[in-house]
Amino acid sequence: MLALSPSGDGAPLRRVLAIGCHADDIEIGCGGTLLGLTRSRPDVEVTWVVLGAEGAREAEARASAEGFLASAAASEVVVLGFKDAYMPYHGEAVKDAFEELKRFEPDLVLTHTRADLHQDHRLACELTWNTFRDHLVLEYEIPKVDGDLATPNVFVPLEEEHARRFLRRAASVGKAHGIRVVPRLVRARDAAAAVRAVAAEEDTQLIVVP
Question: Between 162 and 45, whose confidence is greater?
Answer without folding.
Answer: 45
